[in-house]
Design goal:
This protein has about 140 residues and is an alpha+beta fold. It is built from 4 helices and 7 strands, in the order E-H-H-E-E-E-H-E-H-E-E. The protein has one domain (about 1-140): Aminopeptidase (3-Layer(aba) Sandwich), CATH 3.40.630.30. It is about 30% helix and about 40% strand. Acetylates the N-terminal alanine of ribosomal protein bS18. InterPro entries: AcTrfase_RimI/Ard1 (IPR006464), Acyl_CoA_acyltransferase (IPR016181), Bact_Acetyltransf (IPR050832), GNAT_dom (IPR000182).
Length: about 140
């Protein structure tokens, strides 16, 4: 598996993963285009196919993990871990002091992964994910 920069041509490959994992709450192509246009740091994990993707938005010493998604057939094989490590490495290179993220309150596997990298719960965003009205747990990690 190799990690590469996410480029515009990857958008078509990530859309089916978005649809499968997030359904009605999936990101649109325009949302990915916007992230790339803002020069946020996005990467893909690739083997024979695109396995997953992740993004980081950073400014003023703070970064937000925008998303980490791994194709169902590639889950539990270390892909999410590698993607997260890549984002945290980039945050370190940029001198980021705090990295934050939002994760669904019912996504225990993702919360466990984040906790192993030093993320701790700092708040709840009620009804954050729409249309399911699922709460988001906000987690933070100091550099």
């Amino acid at each position: 598996m190799r990690i590469e920069r996410f480029r515009w041509w990857h958008i078509a490959e990530v859309l089916p993963i978005e649809d499968d994992l997030f359904g009605a709450e999936k990101w649109s192509p325009a949302m990915f285009w916007n992230e790339l246009a803002q020069h946020n740091f996005y990467v893909v994990a690739v083997d024979e196919e695109l396995l997953g993707y992740a993004g980081l938005a950073a400014n003023d010493g703070e970064a937000w993990v925008q998303n980490i998604a791994v194709r169902r057939t590639a889950q539990r094989r270390g892909v999410g871990r590698r993607l997260l490590e890549t984002l945290l490495g980039e945050a370190g290179r940029r001198g980021i002091k705090q990295t934050l993220l939002e994760v669904a309150v019912d996504n225990a596997p993702a919360q466990h992964l984040y906790a192993t990298y030093g993320f701790e719960p700092v708040g709840i965003r009620r009804g954050y994910y729409q249309p399911s009205n699922t709460d988001a747990l906000v987690m933070m990690r100091d550099a």
